[in-house]
Amino acid sequence: MTDSDKRPLAVFDLDNTLADTAHRQRFLERKPRDWDAFFAAAPHDPPLPQGIALVLESAEECEVVYLTGRPERCRRDTLAWLAAQGLPEGRVYMRRNDDRRPARRTKLEILKRLAGSRKIRVLVDDDELVCDDAQRAGFKVVRACWTAPSAELEVAQEREGRT
Predict the structure, then answer these.
(1) Closest CA relative to residue 17, chosen from 141, 143, 144
(2) Domain residue spans in the chain?
(3) What is the DSSP-derived secondary structure letter of residue 44?
(4) What is the C-alpha to C-alpha distance for residues 156 and 151, in angstroms, rounded to an integer?
């Protein structure tokens, strides 16, 4: 067993927790929504200082894990963005490309699986429904409230299962 296997996990969402998606919200305001453009713009997301600071602080005592509703096809861009921000390496859990379940279901499923073998110290996420369900399941949650809520992103996460 390595030291990282003994350390608790700190689980971080990406969009509107670590990455500011405001510049790409316009792609969700169109009818039909332009998902390809929305995700293609993700590498240009500015980092959110509050979230970045929390990841770095958490990494002192925890193994950092990233849990996002982004589809698997965005993995390369996501890993490059995390590295460009100087964030700790960590496993990145993403939605299957064809998975359209609500973010709160997919994320809670992964959290429970992780908790089966490791202590989860905290989940940091901006999605209120994800946070509510995680708290009900007994997880400690920090609500990333450092960005303005987006109605379009909420629909994408909950009803369309897109992020």
Answers:
(1) 144
(2) 3-158
(3) G
(4) 9
> What is the tens place of the pLDDT at every residue in 15-45?
999 999 999 989 988 888 898 999 999 999 9
- Any residues with CB less than 8 A from the CB of 61 and at least 6 apart, and which? 7, 8, 121
Are 23 and 58 in contact by the 8 Å Cβ rule? The answer is: no
Segment 57-114, tens digit of pLDDT: 999 999 999 999 899 999 999 999 999 999 999 999 999 988 888 888 999 999 999 9
CATH architecture of 3-158: 3-Layer(aba) Sandwich (3.40)
SS3 readout for 72-88: HHHHHHHHHHHHHCCCC
SS3 category, 26: helix
| Beta carbons within 8 Å of 149's beta carbon, 6+ residues apart | 126
Whole-number Å distance between alpha carbons of 103 and 81: 21
| Alpha-carbon gap, residue 55 to 135, rounded angstroms | 20
Structure tokens at 88: 């700790």
Say how far apart CA 97 and CA 104 lie, in whole Å: 17
